[in-house]
Amino acid sequence: MIDVVIALEDAGANRQVHDVLRLAADAVAEQTGTQISEPLDIGHEVGRIIDWLQTYFLDNPARLLVLISDLLLRPEGPPSANNLAKRCQEILGHYAFGTIAITALPQRIPDIDRTIRPDTSRSEFERALSLTIGRLQYVAAPTKTPAAKCDSILVRPLRSTNEMEFRSYFALRHRVYTVMGYLDDEMERCRSGLEINEADLRAIHLGAFCRTGPQERLVGTARVVTNDEANMTLQRVFEGLVRNDPVVRQRLISPYPLSLPIFQSYDEMDAIMQEVFSRRQRCGEISRVIVESEFRGRGISRALVAEALRRSVDGGLERVFLECLKIHEALYGSFGFQPIVEGPVVDVFRTMVAMELRPTPARKAVAAQASGEAERPIAWQGGGLL
Fold first, then answer.
1. H helices then E strands: how many in the chain?
2. Do 58 and 177 have their domain in common?
3. What are the DSSP calls for 280-331, one per residue?
4. Whether residue 127 is found in the same domain as residue 156
5. 54 in a domain, yes or no?
C-alpha cells in the first residue's frame, strides 16, 4: 500500500488532483503492483505539514508515502526547492518519502521527484505518480522474498570487448535511473535507452550475473571510476554503442574537468582535492550500484560493493569515494565509509551524502569479506570469493 497525502493551497488544483487521482488510481496500481490509499488532505500550513510528516514516519517508519503539494517551490525566480522541500529532505531523507510539486511549467527540479501542472491531465499525473512510487519501491528495503529464480550469482568484471554485455549493463542503468529520477529529460528519452557518460571510459565495470544452467543474465551493475587516463578499448566499444544516439554520444565526449564526478559537486571538498592533485594520488569513486527489482533482497548490492572495494585495493587506489542517498548511508557505513559532506550532486537531481574510505580500512573491509568475518548474505562468486 502506498499512502498519498495532499497539501494544496490552490483550491482548483486541489479539486483537479483529487479528480485525476480517482481516475488514475487503478492504472497506477497496475503499473506499480501496489494499491493506492485514499488521499488524505493535511492542509497548507507549512509547520503543520512538517509536524504531520514527522509523526507519520515515527509511527510508520517502513511505510511509503507520496506528498503532492504546491508549497514545495520558491515563488520567485527559476523553479527550485524551497525551505519546506529542503526541510523535508533533511528530516525525512532516511525514509521512503516522495514528492510531486505543482508548477505552471513541469520540469526536473533537484530534490523534487516529479512536477505536474495545476490542471494536470490524467496521463501526466499517472506517469508522475507511477515514477515516484517506483523510486520509493526501489530505495525501500525489500519486504518479500525475491521471486526470481537462479542457481547462483556471479559477480565479475564485464568483458572489455563484449558489446552485448555492455549494452545490457547500460540499459539496466538507464531503466533504474529513469525510475529514480536521476536523468534529465533528454537522457530519459534518448534513442538508445543507454545511460553512459565520460567517466565510464575511466572505470572498472562490474556486473552481477544470474546463472541458471549454462545461461547468464545481467541483474546488477557497479563501477569504480578512477582518475586514470581513458581506456581506449572501452572508448571504441562505447562509441559503437551510441553511434546513432547524439544525446548519449555528447555525454560520452564531455569530460569531467576535475576527473572524478564527486569532485564536481561539493565546494567543501576543496581541501581533499588539493591533497589528491598535489600528491598525485590515484583515487576511485564507486557508483551505479544497481540491482534489478526482482533480484533485490539477495544481498547483491553488498556483493557488488565488496567486489568494487577489492578491485580498488588490488588496483592500488589510495582513496575511495562515493555518493549515496541518506537511506543507503548505513549500508556503506558498514564497509567503513565515513561521511564527508552533504549536498546536491552534479548531473543528478538529488541531495546526497559524500563518503570516503581510506586505504587501511578498505584493506580491512576486503580482508573481512575474504575471511568470512563480514556478513555475506548470498552465495556469490567474484575474485575467488565463493
1. 12, 13
2. no
3. T--EEEEEEEEE-GGGTTSSHHHHHHHHHHHHHHHTT-SEEEEEE-GGGHHH
4. no
5. yes
pLDDT value of position 140:
86
Asked whether residue 147 is domain-assigned, the answer is no
Same domain, 370 and 327: yes
Q: Same structural domain for residues 174 and 104?
A: no
How crowded is residue 385: how many other Cβ atoms within 10 Å of its Cβ? 17
The domain total for the chain is 2
Distance, CA of 101 to chain centre: 20
- Which residues, including other chains, have CB under 8 Å from residue 228's CB and lie 6 or more apart? 202, 282
Task: Tell me how many degrees the CA angle 322-324-329 measures, rounded to the nearest 5.
Answer: 105
Burial of 346 (0-12, 13-18, 19+ CB in 10 A): middle
Residues 165 and 116 both lie in one domain: no
Strands 96-102 and 114-116: parallel
Q: Tell me if 205 sits within 8 A of 166, measured CB to CB.
A: yes
68 phi and psi, to 5 degrees?
A: -110, 120
Structural domain includes residue 80 = yes
pLDDT along the chain (386 residues), means of 10: 95 96 95 93 94 95 95 89 91 92 90 95 96 92 70 92 95 96 93 97 97 91 96 96 97 93 91 93 96 90 95 92 93 93 88 86 63 44 32
- Beta carbons of 257 and 346 less than 8 angstroms apart: no
Q: Confirm whether 224 is domain-assigned.
A: yes
- Which of these three, 82, 114, 139, is where a domain ends? 139
Measure the CA–CA gap between 262 and 285, rounded to whole angstroms. Answer: 7
Structural domain boundaries enclosing 293: 152-381
Same domain, 168 and 269: yes
Q: Let me know whether 222 and 183 are in one domain.
A: yes
Cell (9 digits) for 24: 488514475
- In angstroms, rounded to a whole number, what is the distance separating the alpha carbons of residues 114 and 102? 9
Residue holding cell 552533504? 342
128 lies in the same domain as 159: no
Contacts (Cβ under 8 Å, ≥6 apart) of 9: 44, 70, 71
